[in-house]
Amino acid sequence: QVQLVGSGGGSVPAGGSLRLSCTISGTRIMNYAMGWYRQAPGKEREQVATLINHNINYADSVKDRFTISKDTSKNTFYLQMNSLKPEDTAVYYCNSFIFGRQLWGQGIQVTVSS
């Protein structure tokens, strides 16, 4: 059974950094499409960053602050978040498209205080 397990959230002051991790179990990470999404209170879930083959895309609101990457040796992909802002506060979800299915990790709370 393929599963995504996310980790790494927390609370930081504005300007701080966090790194989210998403470990894939049940298959090798390979070149599956993967990404990070977030949902703030009262808002719809939005795409933050995606890595599809070697193509990377970021939401305009996080460009130059967030970096998506993967480590195939650890079967894990990451979201490095720098220069965090209060508006980055949300529940973050990792996502991957594996064997024709959209898979989601559990939500990870990120709170940025002003």
Can you offer a commentary on this structure?
It contains no helices and eleven strands. It has strands at 3-7, 10-13, 18-25, 33-39, 46-52, 55-58, 66-71, 76-81, 90-98, 101-104, 108-113. The strands form two sheets. Strands 2, 4, 5, 6, 9, 10 and 11 form a seven-stranded mixed sheet that branches. Strands 1-3-8-7 form a four-stranded antiparallel sheet, with no helix packed on it. With 114 residues, the protein is an all-beta fold.
Keywords summarizing the entry:
114 residues, mainly beta, 7-stranded mixed sheet, 0% helix, globular
Helices, strands, pairings?
Blueprint (H helix, E strand, L loop, with lengths): L2 E5 L2 E4 L4 E8 L7 E7 L6 E7 L2 E4 L7 E6 L4 E6 L8 E9 L2 E4 L3 E6 L1
The radius of gyration over CA amounts to 13 Å
Q: How many separate helices?
A: 0
Largest sheet: 7 strands, mixed
Measured as a percent range, the helix fraction is under 10%
Which class best fits the helix and strand makeup?
mainly beta
**Mean pLDDT across every amino acid position:** 95
Task: For the record, give the distance between the C-alpha atoms at the N and C termini, rounded to a whole number.
Answer: 41 Å
Order of helices and strands: EEEEEEEEEEE
| Number of strand segments | 11
Low-confidence stretches: none
Which range does the strand content fall in? over 45%
Shape: globular
